[in-house]
Design goal:
This protein is mainly α and 577 residues long. The chain contains 23 helices and four strands. It has one domain: Up-down Bundle (Sodium/glucose cotransporter), CATH 1.20.1730.10. Helix content is 70%, strand content 1%. Helix 4 packs across helix 14 and helix 14 crosses helix 16. The longest helix has 51 residues.
Amino acid sequence: MSLQLLTYLVVGFTFTLYIGIAIWARAGSTKEFYVAGGGIHPISNGMATAADWMSAASFISMAGLIGFIYEGYGGSVFLLGWTGGYVLLAMCLAPYLRKFGKFTVPEFVGDRFYSNAARIVAVVCLIIASVTYVIGQMKGIGVAFSRFLETSYETGLTAGMLIVFIYAVLGGMKGITYTQIAQYVVLIFAYTIPAIFISLNLTGNPIPQLGLGGTLADGTYVLDKLDQTVTELGFNEYTTSVRGSRLNMFVYTLSLMLGTAGLPHVIIRFFTVPTVKDARRSAGWALVFISVLYTTAPAVAAMARLNLMDTVEPSPGNYLQYDERPQWFKNWEKTGLLKYEDKNNDGLIQYSADPAVNEMVKIDNDILVLANPEIAALPNWVIALVAAGGLAAALSTAAGLLLAISSAISHDLLKGVFNPNISERGELRASRIAMAFTVLLAGYLGFNPPDFAAGTVALAFGLAASSIFPVLMLGIFYKRMNSQGAIAGMMSGLGVTLFYVFQHKGIMFIQGTSFLGGMDHNWFFGIEPNAFGAVGALVNFTVAISVAKLTPEPPDNIQKLVDDIRSPHGITAPLSH
């Protein structure tokens, strides 16, 4: 059976499964649409949360970022930041927000800070962070379709939009939750099975995490061989390279942690469980499910880079003839994500850190995981499974983000501010209409991605870290925080982060150069724009607390509400409007 036909069958089966689940789990009330009725089991919610979290960035891009852009050790910021953020979320936010008993993050902000203005500012912050994030998912959908189903990027993106539209609009959070459970199963098998094959081929060990520290057939350790190979070609040593400076790596990790804990589409998942205890348990289960992929990713990154180098240079100085390039090379050339330029007209493929010598002029980091099974000559069914997994990762996160955006529009703006007396049926209809328009907006941005957003998902984490995380922390743990401080903090944190990003990357965006690959010596204390969310969070905390101390205290009932939220005793508040 041909690879294309097999891929169509595997992807078609998974899509049919997703749509069938959406029809079965169709939301019949606003509570089911927003929070799946509030009755999801912690293990199921943990699995759905993991799928919601492990986006196209995690599945498709992260190994490429570790292996190529951040050259090994420097890429540890993603592993530490994204997983560490879940610990922060489980300990400091999820249980308290669940106990508060509302549907959305802006609703918490509006009620806690007794202000529709604060609620509206929170909606704006949510939309900016979520839209930035969803563009990356749309790109992932287009990339996966364009290669494996041999369609155009536009056709693939349109098909992805249609699938998301059906199960997100029909099922809301209820449909998305059960669909994401299926998507987790698909994506985790798609990620780990090729890794097992490749680890077994290279090291004889079927466990990738152990294979990374294992030896090759000649007795050389995998990482020693990789260090030797990359340094001979002029690249930084894989196991010691640092992105910019250690301060930059620390701040970048912190920004990703705070952003993880502040992303609305992740937080809203903890409103779907029955109790506060279940919120903590589901966060723990999510970490377990996430760790399967995140402990595999370093092995995938290292082994894929080693395989790639061995393919184009089978032995030192013995470069591959371009005319004899393998089929996987030809396949990815068609997508435009891999480009070769014969700079010295010798017909060889020379790969080097020196731009004047390097003839692999473009290796998009997004192709590494998707091309890895082809590079390793794995069976067609494995390659088809990877295609389905990449699409599952992008679709699951896109659905969660779209729900967060549409909920902010229908529940927080329409019902919460402009039309408080709307009926539940009317709100449900408005929610579905908002979701439909949000899908169309996401599709438009996928077809016409702004360079600043298409270049990185990490920016979305910085925006969430600088705007949403501080206001939630202060709302829970600082009784003295009032509406004036919350509003000033959110606006200042978001504003300084956006200003820094655009000021330092504006010229690069216009010129179309790499957001992730570019280095700027004028960075503030050497901190790159993707990492600046932690600085924005510090600004947010500082401004919010300063303004709160200079303005009247919150009303007594609000301060008592904060005490109740933080109390470990008492009955969990039911989810309500």
